[in-house]
Amino acid sequence: MTASTNRRPRTIYSNPSRAARPKPEASGRERFWWIFMRLSGLALVFLALGHMFIMHVLVVLTGDQIDFAFVQSRWGTPFWRIYDLLLLVLAFMHGVNGARIVISDYVAHRTARSLIIGVLLFISAAWLILGIAIIALFDPSAS
What we know:
It is a single chain. By secondary structure, the chain is mainly α. It has a single domain (29-137), classed as 3 helical TM bundles of succinate and fumarate reductases (Up-down Bundle), CATH 1.20.1300. The protein is 72% helix and 0% strand. The chain has helices spanning 16-20, 29-62, 68-74, 78-106, 110-137. It is elongated and about 70 Å long. The termini are far apart.
């Protein structure tokens, strides 16, 4: 008998903090976020690729520079503001929800998990409001 036949099969352990908690229900808030992650991820693929193509291919090919005047002319139309606002909100919420899921998976202590998620949501809300305010309140006529 060779040494390789005497080995015990390798056991792959699941995350103990996730296994100890009950599974989320098939409906409700977690189901909404599960669907949101799939749909926002799909939308972000097109929005982000479109943004990269426009900003880093078309602008370079036309010889323009990305500066204040460029942003001023771009955000002078509602289409680009809505496009950038949608990109910001979807990307931010997608990322924060992903971080929330990772925290829920790996922080076993209930109080610590709640505290970390609370801090994450507070800081994220502040940054998201700031980003939305910048896009919404930007005055393209100012120089």
